[in-house]
């Protein structure tokens, strides 16, 4: 899983910004499955995740921002990890999201 996580996550993150409803539904389903797998087998490269999340949090797309904020929240809830070591990489993007006018992003 570790060697494929970044590629799978990157594809899902790109597709999370799609406007097509069927694609969004497929992304949500794959997202849930990926989170279930990560919950069971916590073996992926957090460094690579942070690089992707850091870049995508700065995009203007609200769906992409919510997708990445949800992943950050999910990972923080995991007992085996702490993103505090990566805070300096994620903080700018999170602050940009908090300043977004979209209420869904502010509450994510």
What does this structure look like?
The chain is an all-alpha fold and 108 residues long. It has one domain. The protein has helices at 2-15, 21-40, 46-57, 62-77, 87-98, 103-107. It is globular and about 35 Å long. The N and C termini lie far apart (27 Å).
**What share of residues is helical?**
over 70%
Radius of gyration from the alpha-carbon trace, in angstroms: 13 Å
Percent strand equals under 5%
Outline the biggest β-sheet. none
> Tell me, what's the shape?
globular
Overall number of strands: 0
Q: What's the mean pLDDT score?
A: 79
Number of domains: 1
pLDDT < 50 runs, ≥5 residues = none
Structural class of the secondary elements?
mainly alpha
Count of alpha/pi helices: 6
What string gives the helices and strands in order? HHHHHH
Distance between the termini: 27 Å
List the SSEs and their pairings.
Blueprint: H1 2-15, H2 21-40, H3 46-57, H4 62-77, H5 87-98, H6 103-107
């Amino acid at each position: 899983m570790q060697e494929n996580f970044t590629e799978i996550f990157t594809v899902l993150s790109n597709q999370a910004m799609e406007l097509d409803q069927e694609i969004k539904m497929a992304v949500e389903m794959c997202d849930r499955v990926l989170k279930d797998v990560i919950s069971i087998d916590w073996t992926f490269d957090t460094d690579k995740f942070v690089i992707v999340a850091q870049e995508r949090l700065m995009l203007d797309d609200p769906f992409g921002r919510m997708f990445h904020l949800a992943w950050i929240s999910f990972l923080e809830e995991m007992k085996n990890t702490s993103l505090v070591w990566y805070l300096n990489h994620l903080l700018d993007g999170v602050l940009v999201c908090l300043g977004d006018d979209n209420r869904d992003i502010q509450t994510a």
